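Q: what does this look like with adenine bound?
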Amino acid sequence: MFYTSYIMAITNSKEQFEDKKLDITLRPQSFNDYIGQEKTKRNLKILIEAAQKRKESIEHVLLYGPAGLGKTTLSHIIAKELGVGIKITSGPAIERVGDLGSILTNLQDGDILFIDEIHRLNKLIEEVLYPAMEDYKLDIIVGKGPSARTLQLDLPKFTLIGATTRLGSISNPLRNRFGAIHRLEFYSPEEIKKIIKRSSTILGIPINEKGSEIIASCSRQTPRIANRILKRVRDLAQIQDKEIICDSVAKETLQMLEVDHVGLEPTDRIIMKTIIEKFDGGPVGIGTIAAATSEEIQTIEDVYEPYLIQLGFLVRTPRGRMITERGLHHLGYAPKKIDL
Ligand code: ADE
């Protein structure tokens, strides 16, 4: 049981306090320190410079893409470059219209409001957000019944940065109110290696080339996972009194975590094996996969599936998910026979 929760901590986890603190330490503070996402960085720099020249606040920005690729980190960097404050919240945390009202009225001109998981905002709140984004106005209803009146408050000229793993779940009216929409991409192995080297320098333990290569290959092209694995490798290196992270300690940690050489962990393998063994490789609906694996649909869709699709092990079809030949081969299954 202990082992399972330890494994869970790599891809899908609520982090321990110490890990969270370390993550903040590892987070790059400027565009110069931020490795990867070159296209998005270039566009954001232009947005910032142009707005600064015009002495205006920047337009609202929507960042989307798989979890752990740096949406929050980029937002902190934007705030830092602009020299403005940033308030961090999330779609599910804003439960009532009043919650949003108090957040918005407490911002200063130019400040950034970062809403993570913005696709989970409730509809009523979304509608209050439209005039706030467009005209910096907040409509509030005072009183009840026939005597109810609408009051309009002026808001500071803030910038909304929305983040989501699901662009398709954002309503058109909300999406249309963002001036810049950027997709964050999975990182290349070289970029992940650079991030691992940078992080190990900050953590104060050197790493050799092979060690960083091994960790990079199992990091699902995702910095958050690379840093989590690096921290676990560092733990083992320190317990073994090693002064450098080498390939052997990296390999040993990954074996303990049951992470394979492309970064699949037990839950990925359970999902794939379930589709192969119970549903003949698919196509099978996501609800059925969730029921058969005791995982939530959203967890499969947001946490596990994007990387399996990226690897070409799984495809989404109109009739459901299917394991590919490549996926079968990775798990050691024979290729699927084609009925003639
Ligand atoms: N740590 C986490 N993400 C990073 C990135 N993109 N660049 C540098 N360090 C990071």
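The radius of gyration is 23 Å. Residues 266-330 form a domain with the Arc Repressor Mutant, subunit A fold (CATH 1.10.10.10).
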